[in-house]
Fold this protein.
Amino acid sequence: DVHLVESGGGLVKPGGSLRLSCAASGFSFNLFSMTWVRQAPGKGLEWVSFISSNGAYIYYVDSVKGRFTISRDSATNSVYLHMNSLRAEDTGVYYCARDGVEGATTPFYFDHWGQGSLVTVSS
Amino acid sequence: SYDLTQPPALSVSPGQTVTITCSGDGLGDKYTSWYQQKPGQSPVLVIYQDAKRPSGIPERFSGSNSGITATLTISGTQATDEADYYCLAWGIRHVVFGGGTKLTVV
C-alpha cells in the first residue's frame, strides 16, 4: 500500500522558517512526481508546489515563489518543503500527494495523499 | 491567472442524481480530476483524466469534460457521499483547484 506521512509542522512566528517532510513508502519513489497542497482553516484546497520524479521540473504557486523550496531525496524516499519568510496567510494544513502518472513532468492528478501537517504562523 | 468556478453548495436527496460543474476557459482541452474531502479527512481522488475512476471508487461516480465545463455526476447518491468536492486542472504552469462544492445529502 502507498503511504505518505507528513511531519515538521508547528507554530512559527511571522518571518520564520519551517521544513516539512513527507516520507513515502509502498511504491517506487523514484518513478513518481510529488506535490504539496495546502488548505487554510475552513477554506478550499490550494496547490503549492510540484517536483518531478528526477527533480528536473519544479513549479510553485506565485504566492510562495522565492520563499518556499521543494526538494526530494531518493535515499530516504522523502520530499521536503522548505518554507522561509512565513506569513500569516501561509497558515493551514499541508498535504503531500503523489502524482498518478509515472515520470510526469507536469502535474496530472494526485492519487494518494498524506494525512497532512498543520502549520500555524502567528506571533 | 487561470480560474475554475464551481457552485459553492448543492443539495440532493438520497437515491437521486446530482451533477457538480467546474467551469474554466478552454477546460475541455485540459485533463480534469475530482477530489472528495470529508470533514477532518484528506482529499480522495474520485475521477481522473476527465472520466476515469480509480480502483475502489463506486461506479455511481462519473465524469465528463467538454467545452468550458467539466462535470462530476453522482448517481444514486448515498448519505456517505456528503462531502466537499474539488475539481483540478493544469493551468499556465500552475495547478488550479476549483473553489469547492459542499454537497449535502438531505
Remarks:
- The radius of gyration of chain B is 13 Å.
- The beta strands of chain B are 9-12, 18-23, 32-37, 44-47, 61-66, 69-74, 83-90, 95-97, 101-105.
- Residues 82 and 104 of chain B are 5 Å apart (CA to CA).
